[in-house]
Amino acid sequence: MSSHSSSTYREAGVDTAAGDLAVELMKSAVSATHGPEVFGGVGGFAGLFDVSALKQFRRPLLATSTDGVGTKVAIAQALDKHDTIGQDLVGMVVDDIVVVGARPLFMTDYIACGKVVPSRIADIVAGIARACAETGTALIGGETAEHPGLIAADEYDVAGAAVGAVEADSVLGADRVRHGDVVLALASSGLHSNGYSLVRHILAQAGIGFADQSTDLGITWGEALLTPTRLYTAPLLRLLAEPALGASVHSLSHVTGGGIAANLARVLPRGSWVEVDRATWAPAPLFRVLSDVAGTSLESAEGTWNLGVGFFAVVAPQAVDGAIASLTAAGVPTWPVGVVSTDARELDGFEQGAKGVDGGAVRLVGTYEA
Hints:
The protein has 370 residues and is α+β, with helices and mostly antiparallel strands. It has helices at 3-11, 16-31, 72-79, 85-97, 118-135, 196-206, 221-225, 233-241, 259-265, 285-294, 320-329, and strands at 38-39, 48-49, 60-68, 103-113, 138-146, 156-167, 182-187, 249-254, 273-277, 309-315, 334-339, 351-354, 357-365. The longest helix is centred in the middle third of the chain and has 18 residues, at 118-135. It comes from Gryllotalpicola reticulitermitis.
C-alpha cells in the first residue's frame, strides 16, 4: 500500500498503526492462555489448535457457543473502565459450553469500535484472557475492527465464540432428568450480563448517573453494575469429574436472557414440572434497590434478571449433599430450590419450555427471603 493511500485511510478514521500497537499490548495476556495445543501464537489469520486428544474419545462431539455482553458495555464506556467486561464475555460464551457437559477448548473474540485506543483494547482483551485462563480455555484468535462514522469514537461492542468437546454418551440434558431429581441453584455475582437495557432505563427515568453514589449499596451505581459475571465452568467440570457425583448430574442451565423460569424449563423433559421456592434465597441488595427505584416488585423482573441465581443443576437426590459441598468449596454458594415431578397436575401459571425448546414447566412460588 502506498504512503498516499495509507494516509487517506487514516484520514478516513482507520488507524492501522493503533491496531498493531493494541495487538502488541495484549500479546502477553493472550499467550498466557496457550498450552502446547496452540500453534502459531498471536497474529495469524487463523488460530490453530491441536485436537489430537480427541482421539481418546469414543465418540467426540464438539460444542459451540457465541454471544456478547449486551448493553453492559455502555456502563464500562461511561466509567472508562474496561478491564472487567472481558470476563463478562467469557461467562456468557464459555459457561454455555459447560451446560451440555463439554470441556471448553478454545475461544475467539471480536471487538468493533469507533476508534482503536490501544490501551482500552488491551484492557478488554486482558479481561477476556484472564477469564479464559480461569475456565481452562485457550484464547487463540480475535479481531479488532475500527468502524468510524458507524460507531462513536469512544464506543465499542464485544462478542466471542468458543468450542468445546464432550463424549456423546456424557452429554447432559433433559433426557437424563427423572422424577424426584432435585434442582440446585448456584448463586450469581450480580446482574451478570442480562437486563442492562432495563437497568439503564430505570436509572435514566430516576435521573441517576453511573458515577452517582448509592447510599444503599455503599458504592457508585457504576461500580455495582460492573461487577463481573461469575464463572461456573471450572467448578462444574470438577463436579462432573468426581466419580461418585458426576453421573448424578443430569442437566444444567445457564440463567441468562429470558430469566429464571424460562431457562430452567429448557433443560427439563416435556411432561415434567418444578415449583422453584423463592423463600430459599435472598436476592442481593442491588436487585432490591433497583426494584425500589423503579417502583416495581422483584417478581416482575424474574423474566429479565437472574435475581441471585446464575445457574441451575438438576441432580439425583443421593447426590444433593455432595454436589452442594463440591460447588460451595469451589466458591459457588449452592442450595436446593425445588424437586422435579412428572405427576399429573394443572399447569396454569407455569412457564413451559423456551427459545424453541418444548421442555418442562416451571413456576416460582413463595416470597423471597428478606
